[in-house]
Amino acid sequence: KHFKIAVLPGDGIGPEIIESALKVLDVISKKYGITFEYKHGLVGGAAIDETGDPLPPETLKICKESDAVLFGAVGGEKWDNLPTDKRPEKGLLRIRKELELFANIRPAKAYAPLLSSSPLKEEVIKGVDLVVLRELTGDVYFGEPRGREVRNGERVGYNTMIYYEHEIKRIAKVAFEMARNRRKKVTSVDKANVLEVSGLWREVVNEVHADYLDVDLEHMYVDNCAMQLIRRPKDFDVIVTGNIFGDIISDEAGALTGSLGMLPSASIGERYAFYEPIHGSAPDIAGKGIANPIATILSAAMMLEITCKLPQAARDIEKAVEKVLEDDYRTADIWSPGTKKVNTAEMTEEIIKRL
Amino acid sequence: KHFKIAVLPGDGIGPEIIESALKVLDVISKKYGITFEYKHGLVGGAAIDETGDPLPPETLKICKESDAVLFGAVGGEKWDNLPTDKRPEKGLLRIRKELELFANIRPAKAYAPLLSSSPLKEEVIKGVDLVVLRELTGDVYFGEPRGREVRNGERVGYNTMIYYEHEIKRIAKVAFEMARNRRKKVTSVDKANVLEVSGLWREVVNEVHADYLDVDLEHMYVDNCAMQLIRRPKDFDVIVTGNIFGDIISDEAGALTGSLGMLPSASIGERYAFYEPIHGSAPDIAGKGIANPIATILSAAMMLEITCKLPQAARDIEKAVEKVLEDDYRTADIWSPGTKKVNTAEMTEEIIKRL
Ligand SMILES: CC(C)[C@H](C(=O)O)[C@@H](O)C(=O)O
Ligand SMILES: CC(C)[C@H](C(=O)O)[C@@H](O)C(=O)O
């Protein structure tokens, strides 16, 4: 009942929203008799400014000695012109690889009180409750060879899309296990009509499915999935896909509900786990105390469920968030006429009151 | 004023919608005093059934002797279990490569009378008028090495994402030229924060931009683009991107308006041009005479503008289509209560009446 948490606030609004999540965890800790030991680490632009490295060895050490990492957000204009491998994003990619966080879980859920913020018509978005499961440590993100060179006098750039059998197997298993606790449907997304790497993906997913015949499996081409997500998002339950397709499809799925500030995520591996909001560091509103803390608070809820094995505590937080929305409290990003505008601290307080 | 057109109807509804487009071209031919010489060729499943090859040499020859190819659609369940390189899609990929059709142009436009068919709220979709320009002969579709093998006792599949400087240059030029005739804005979509191939893409697009400083250029990561297309589609004018990102992004853009049956496309190279509707072969309604011919008719309009250099004839067709919609004629796919349901032949007649 004791958990070591690495806390990496990062840049922009990162520190503010992490503070909110920690306040909520304090309350849960008392209610459920568990304890958290926090170690703070530098990451992203903040780490570049102090050490020149977006992921300093000390931060990696803290992560590797933890049961879970709670992450804010990284990046900002200040560091936009650095070369690719010195940028804040590189810190994030290195954490994923070093901690072998192969399964990125991104739920997208339409909250009834927020239907009006969606760009989709109410009848299309109402009731949407899907999860994108994105493979996070393989594919063209890490594939070799990669690089740039000159061939026959002209520049050429290349990367390698690659998947190994074991990488596909383990993410497929996570997908089917997840679907068992949900609506028992998995949509595997690939481009098997064109790519050999997708041909293998589809083959291995089919093989793993043999152990989960209680779950429905459908295969969908990534272009068609990009289309169907807009046309009939309700039909999806668990979407499983590779790293680059997952990057695109999960952001598209995130946009459907229209409330980016509400979307949590978890990235898990055999040994480590990592929790972060989907949204970025929002430098334009950083330091103003008006950011929406809900995505980070819901990420902490995912931590309680997955790392701390306290699904009940996760449900408590989710219900408190839903009640706050029903009671018409809104941060600026989700505010609409007729609702009550609150800042980060006030939103956090209202959630805590309902725990 | 004489044009050789290769006509490839393909599978499913292909023959029906191509017939409609040819009827419209007949009328235009008289009105503008131009002549068309049609040669029909087999492609896709229809070609597989007769010759075992989705793109028989005879068909390729017809295409190479033509000024333009008018294409219906390919594919169907019947051929779904063939190996990747024997499938109907392979015929399409080979045509693109053989004719060097490097620029795929896919307009997505919200027609006022059809706003109700969009999954997006009216205020989000109204006024959308964008073009996705997808590079079509490079990238992971054709990159080498590619394949499947066994390494250390496990299966592995891989493909190569690759772009050469000259491939990026020529598509970037098309993008800026197109934007000059439109709202003068280009959004170049890549994943330069992760991929070297995208790093080169961004660099070369910037270089080409130096010759088009009257056009605004913005760069956007593909995941963010997938999100912004839903949130604020009106902000896009010309989107230029690589083959695989373009496959996904153009289908997403196509879904925004909610009327797949309305979307035309053109694929052009230095020497050849190819026109096809975006939608597939729709085997479920094939032979019933109820398919929406508009996407194919608008593809023929793109042919008149690009290959025949008759922009006025293209505008005539576009206006006739708009009038038909204003007059409430609808095929089944876009029908809604209160409008008049017509079949393929009737829709074609109504368009011709308004030419
Ligand atoms: C910042 C970037 C490297 C990252 C990714 O592409 O994985 C981000 O888009 C994400 O989805 O977490
Ligand atoms: C059928 C398939 C090979 C093709 C592609 O991926 O290019 C299709 O999706 C398209 O967009 O024209």
From TrEMBL, chains A, B:
Question: Could you state one GO biological process linked to this protein?
Answer: L-leucine biosynthetic process
Enumerate the InterPro entries for this protein. Answer: IsoCit/isopropylmalate_DH_CS, IsoPropMal-DH-like_dom, Isopropylmalate_DH
Q: Keyword Manganese: yes or no?
A: yes
EC number(s) on record?
1.1.1.85
Q: Which cofactor does it need?
A: Mn(2+); Mg(2+)
Q: Which UniProt keywords apply?
A: Amino-acid biosynthesis, Branched-chain amino acid biosynthesis, Cytoplasm, Leucine biosynthesis, Magnesium, Manganese, Metal-binding, NAD, Oxidoreductase
* Enzyme category, top tier: oxidoreductase
Spell out the subcellular localization from the entry.
Cytoplasm
GO MF: 3-isopropylmalate dehydrogenase activity; magnesium ion binding; NAD binding
Give the binding site residues for NAD(+): 76-89, 280-292
Recorded superkingdom = Bacteria
The record's section on SUPFAM superfamilies has: Isocitrate/Isopropylmalate dehydrogenase-like
Subunit info here reads: Homodimer.
Q: Which PANTHER family match?
A: 3-ISOPROPYLMALATE DEHYDROGENASE
Q: What does this protein do?
A: Catalyzes the oxidation of 3-carboxy-2-hydroxy-4-methylpentanoate (3-isopropylmalate) to 3-carboxy-4-methyl-2-oxopentanoate. The product decarboxylates to 4-methyl-2 oxopentanoate.
> Could you identify this protein by its name?
3-isopropylmalate dehydrogenase
Origin organism is Sulfurihydrogenibium azorense (strain DSM 15241 / OCM 825 / Az-Fu1)
Tell me the organism's taxonomic lineage. Answer: Bacteria, Pseudomonadati, Aquificota, Aquificia, Aquificales
